[in-house]
Design goal:
Rossmann fold, alpha/beta, 4-stranded parallel sheet, elongated
Length: about 140
């Protein structure tokens, strides 16, 4: 049985500051580099474009039949419990035939938490070993 064409949407909060999106664009680029056959869109909840519906429509237009939405949030707050399901319904209504699955918030994944913990420990080790000068007020 052949694989069904699938794609991914990286779903982030959004900001009025365009520079805020750079880490998410870097993640999208890393995915393109490591999985060149995976179609990945970046979408935003608010203040930036594209919207989730626009991103899913773009993927559908390129042939995606299944889409995994990856919420780039640390936890399940109101946006993920309330806003995301509503936006997914809207996108599905606008793109019949496309099946959308929403993953858990990225910050709830054990591997992500372990990577964050390693980074915190590296930062602490740097602080302990570096000459930082006097105390900061």
């Amino acid at each position: 049985m052949p694989a069904v064409p699938s794609a991914v949407v990286l779903y982030a909060h959004g900001s009025r500051d365009p520079a805020w999106a750079q880490p998410f664009r870097r993640l999208q680029a890393l995915l393109a580099q490591s999985a060149p056959n995976l179609d990945v869109e970046l979408a935003f909840l608010e203040s930036m474009t594209p919207t989730l519906s626009d991103a899913i429509a773009a993927l559908a237009a390129r042939g995606a039949q299944r889409v995994t939405v990856i919420p780039l949030f640390l936890g399940q707050g109101g946006h993920l419990r309330r806003d995301l399901p509503e936006q997914v319904r809207t996108a599905c209504d606008a793109n019949p035939g496309v099946v959308v699955r929403t993953a858990s918030a990225v910050g709830e994944a054990d591997d992500v938490l372990r990577a964050m913990a390693r980074w915190v420990l590296e930062e602490d080790a740097w602080t302990r070993s570096a000459d930082l000068g006097g105390p900061l007020a």
